[in-house]
Structure formats: structure tokens, C-alpha cells
Amino acid sequence: MKRLTLILILALAAGNAPCEQRDRKREDPQERAARRQRERLAELSRQLARRLATPQPSETRAFLHKEAAALLERARQASPDQYRFDRLCRAADALLEASENILDSVQPEKKPEPDDQEEAARRLERSYFRLQQGDYFAHLSGANDAAAYLKHARSLYQQARSAYDSKQYRKAEKLGEAAAEIIVALESLAQATVRVPEPPRLK
Question: Greater confidence, 202 or 39?
């Protein structure tokens, strides 16, 4: 009986799939774009809710959550402008990724492998170079809290470097990635503000 029920459910699902596909094919391009925007906002909102559910967030994580929520609201308001909407969502997503990396950094360290130190060093180096772009993107973004973004990113990198010195390579990588994600958010905000930036001149 259970087998028959399962077969019927699968058959109904298979029968509905083409109908859903046909309905989506009949969608007006603007309706399709609006639906995709709603789906993206809903997914990012679910991610934010999961981050908010963790008890006693650090000062940095609380800041990231507050900023992500504000960016999602800005994205909703910017929905008629697909480009701006996309960049604001990318910025919110990057902040949520940074928060997740910070949370993951407190997990117990695994037994070091021979290549862990080199891998952590290379990742931190990439995070360091990303951090060097922070001032440029902060300036272009025009964000009121741009200085706070940079402060938290630099603090995370310093924590990552300290973890590396203590041979906590996993923690170092996670904190370094969190710092880099904050700069990604600033870059996305800069793109949302200035679509075609003036390329900087070498001094």
C-alpha cells in the first residue's frame, strides 16, 4: 500500500512539473524577473533569520546582521532597477557569509595536516590583498557606515593573523575569509552606487 501511494505521489509530481514549466514559459519577462527577485529576497531573509537565531552574537556579527537587514530593505525598494537590486543583494549575501565564517571559526580545531600551514598562509595572503582594496570601495560606496565595515574587516584579519601564529589554521582561514567577505560587500555597494567608476590613476 505504501509503495502504491509513493508511486501515485511521484506520478502526480511528474504530471505537475510540465504544467509548472508551461506556466513559467507563459510568464511575462517582467513577471519572471519580479518572481526571481521575490525568491532571492526570501532566501536571503531565511539566511538572515538563521543567523539571528544564534544566541549572544559578537559585536561584529551583530553589526553584520543589522547591515544585512538594512541592505535587504534597500534591495526591496530598488527592485525596479535590476542592476542595483542585484548588487545590494550581493552585498547582503557577503555580510551573511562573513557572519557564518565567524561562527564557524569557533569550532574545535582538527589535527593539523602537513599542508595546513601553507594553505592557511596563502588564504590569509589573499584576504590581506582584498583588505587593501577596502578604502577604495568604501570611498566609492558612499555608505555612512563604510568606516565601520573597514574597522570590522581589519579586526577580523588581525584575529586571523593571531590565530595563525597560534597554529590555529582553520580558525585563521575562517576569520580571514570573513574579513574578505566584508570587502566584497563594500565592492558590491560601490557598484550599486557607481556603475562605471573612474579608473584610479597610478601615483
Answer: 39
The model's pTM is 0.83
Q: Please report where in the chains the cell 511521484 appears, as a residue.
A: 10
Range of the domain at 179: 33-193
Neighbours of 35 (CB within 10 A): 12
- Structural domain count of the chain: 1
Tell me if 169 sits within 8 A of 116, measured CB to CB.
yes
Residue 94 maps to a domain: yes
Is 26 part of any domain?
no
Please give the Cα distance from 16 to 34 (Å, whole number). 23
Each residue's pLDDT tens digit, 42-86: 999 999 999 999 999 999 999 999 999 999 999 999 999 999 999
Question: What does the alpha-carbon distance between residue 69 and residue 102 come to, in Å, rounded to a whole number?
Answer: 18
Under a CB-based contact definition with an 8 Å cutoff, are residues 181 and 98 in contact?
yes
SS3 for 112-125 is: CCCCHHHHHHHHHH
- The residue among 107, 106, 83, 86 whose CA lies nearest residue 44 is 86
Q: Which of 89, 75, 55, 93 is nearest to 182 (CA)?
A: 93
